[in-house]
Design brief:
Blueprint: E1 12-14, E2 19-21, E3 24-26, E4 28-32, E5 35-37, E6 40-42, E7 48-52, E8 57-59, E9 62-69, E10 72-74, E11 77-85, E12 90-92, E13 95-102, E14 107-109, E15 112-114, H1 119-127
Parallel strand pairs: 1-4, 2-5, 3-6, 4-7, 5-8, 6-9, 7-9, 8-10, 9-11, 10-12, 11-13, 12-14, 13-15
């Protein structure tokens, strides 16, 4: 279908030699190979994907639906759908996720919290039948 994006596509790239000081707001897919000193926030009203490559570093808050990390994040992380921590992932900060895939070698220095949005409603609905 024309005009529809395939789930998981990368629309934008922050290159390995790029350093950004300030917040990055995006829609769709973003890959970071460089350094961002600021928050990286995806549009909450659309499907989003962020890839932090093994050479990348983000110093700030990260908010996205689908997050793939193989680099470094210093700050809180919020993944509303899937969080994939690759072998070279390094996160210093609290992590909030709905689903988690963590490979051997990945490190998190902070609290891991499973986001249970929607589950209490399901349990309540099941208990009333």
């Amino acid at each position: 279908m024309l005009g529809r994006k395939t789930k998981g596509t990368i629309d934008s790239l922050i290159g390995i030699s790029t350093n950004i000081e300030g917040n990055v707001n995006f829609k769709g897919g973003l890959r970071i190979d460089g350094t961002v000193k600021g928050n990286v926030i995806a549009d909450a009203n659309e499907a989003s994907m962020l890839v932090i490559s093994e050479h990348a570093k983000v110093e700030g808050e990260v908010r996205v639906a689908h997050l793939v990390v193989n680099g470094e994040i210093v700050g809180p992380v919020y993944s509303s759908e899937l969080l994939e921590l690759q072998p070279r992932a390094r996160i210093t900060g609290d992590v909030y996720y709905k689903a988690l895939e963590m490979h051997g070698g990945a490190l998190v220095a902070g609290k891991l919290t499973h986001d249970q949005v929607g589950e209490p409603v399901l349990k309540l609905a099941l208990s009333n039948t």
